[in-house]
């Protein structure tokens, strides 16, 4: 294939870039601006695991798709590893607020090598990279103030545009982060989304300070694992929870100062006991209905609760008396900016933040990987090798 010439049809730039899947879906993208010769040493078609509509894990199936077309300013990345996130499950079920063009490729967390720089300055084929999971317009007030995860055109790989359950993916150059040689692709894929999310929650939203007490629910989940490590890195005392004796031990190994079994122990009472009745200054909440009320009750006076998700449901009682009498702050957080990830990444490269990888499976086993995640049989990240 090396030396072949592949003709790529380029389309004119649109405010948010044109998702390649709209070409595949056969939508009109006129006027076509030009056709250019493109040195292709990657294939014209690629292997992917796709969904054809909302469905169970078994709906994921192998497919042969056209190679992604890089929009102007995008490069093509050869995917080597792609980590699972809960967002994959929501998107697969059609519940994540995305309206994908089917067949759709899931996968938000991508590491690999530049397959084609597509003329973007500063890139060469073979560069080892990981991708920042959220793309944005780069021009609006939110983007230009560094709040690109609040951009009206914000899209996440594998949610609002095709993702990494495939041999290749097109990515805006601004999302590409160079990987040092010693960082393995599987660990790199396990890093971006959950560390970005937890960094934003703790360091930006909750503005964590040294020696504060932090409660982190479900340390075995991706966000929980990342939050425990980030809070410890910044000098906090961490009370983590986990479900069952095995996960309690694994949570302790992450560096948590105290680990509670949320299936067997009264978390609020234990938090009060550990903190001498004070409660914690910060709660990292991502579980939702099953834990929400206990999260509020665990907070100290002037405590801050920051939530990024509701994997058990979006309901939950809010004890309002506690909220006003204790001067609490309840805040939401979703993903994080590219700058947040660039701030967290050097700690990963230096080994100070280290994702735990539960399993690395071949791409073809994506359905089994989804089943493991949905059944909470994992501790840390599940990664697909591509
Ligand atoms: Zn924007």
Keywords:
about 375 residues, alpha/beta, 20 strands, disordered N terminus, binds zinc ion
Describe the structure.
The chain has 386 residues and is α/β, with parallel strands linked by helices. It contains twelve helices and 20 strands. It has helices at 20-24, 86-93, 141-144, 185-190, 192-205, 222-233, 245-253, 267-274, 292-297, 320-325, 338-349, 366-374, and strands at 4-10, 34-40, 45-51, 61-66, 74-83, 104-105, 109-116, 128-131, 134-135, 155-156, 168-172, 176-178, 213-216, 237-242, 258-261, 280-285, 299-307, 329-332, 357-362, 381-385. Strands 5, 7, 8, 11, 12, 19 and 20 form a seven-stranded mixed β-sheet that branches. Strands 15-14-13-16-17-18 form a six-stranded parallel β-sheet, with helices on both faces. Strands 4-3-6 form a three-stranded antiparallel β-sheet, with no helix packed on it. Strand 16 (280-285), helix 9 and strand 17 form a beta-alpha-beta unit. The longest helix has 14 residues, at 192-205. Residues 1-41 have low confidence and may be disordered. It binds zinc ion (ZN). Residues 136-137, 139-140, 142-143, 151, 153 line the site of zinc ion.
């Amino acid at each position: 294939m090396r030396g072949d010439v592949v003709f790529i049809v380029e389309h004119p730039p649109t405010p948010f870039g044109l998702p390649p899947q709209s070409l595949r879906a056969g939508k009109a993208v006129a006027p076509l601006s030009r056709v250019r010769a493109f040195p292709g040493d990657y294939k014209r078609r690629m292997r992917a695991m796709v969904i054809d509509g909302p469905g169970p894990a078994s709906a994921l199936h192998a497919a042969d798709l056209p190679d992604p077309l890089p929009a102007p300013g995008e490069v093509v990345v050869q995917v080597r590893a792609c980590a699972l996130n809960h967002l994959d499950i929501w998107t697969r079920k059609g519940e994540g607020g995305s309206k994908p063009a089917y067949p759709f490729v899931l996968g938000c967390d991508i590491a690999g090598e530049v397959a084609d720089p597509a003329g973007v300055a500063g890139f060469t084929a073979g560069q080892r990279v990981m991708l920042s999971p959220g793309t944005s317009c780069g021009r609006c007030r939110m983007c230009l103030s560094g709040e690109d995860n609040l951009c009206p055109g914000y899209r996440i790989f594998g949610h609002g545009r095709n993702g990494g359950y495939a041999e290749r993916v097109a990515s805006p150059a601004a999302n590409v982060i160079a990987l040092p040689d010693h960082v393995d692709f599987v660990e790199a894929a396990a890093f971006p989304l959950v560390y970005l999310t937890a960094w934003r929650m703790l360091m930006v939203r909750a503005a964590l300070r040294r020696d504060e007490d932090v409660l982190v629910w479900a340390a075995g989940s991706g966000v929980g694992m990342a939050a425990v490590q980030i809070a410890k890195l910044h000098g906090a005392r961490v009370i983590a929870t986990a479900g069952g004796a095995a996960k309690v031990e694994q949570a302790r190994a992450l560096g948590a100062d105290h680990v509670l079994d949320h299936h067997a122990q009264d978390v609020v009472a234990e938090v009060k006991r550990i903190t001498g009745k004070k409660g914690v200054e910060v709660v990292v909440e991502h579980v939702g209905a099953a834990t929400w009320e206990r999260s509020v009750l665990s907070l100290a006076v002037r405590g801050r609760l920051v939530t990024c998700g509701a994997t058990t449901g979006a309901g939950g009682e809010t004890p309002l008396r506690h909220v006003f009498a204790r001067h609490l702050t309840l805040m939401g957080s979703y993903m994080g900016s590219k700058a947040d990830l660039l701030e967290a990444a050097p700690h990963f490269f230096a080994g100070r933040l280290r994702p735990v990888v539960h399993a690395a499976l071949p791409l073809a086993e994506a359905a089994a990987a989804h089943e493991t995640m949905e059944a909470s049989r994992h501790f840390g990240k599940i990664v697909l090798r591509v």
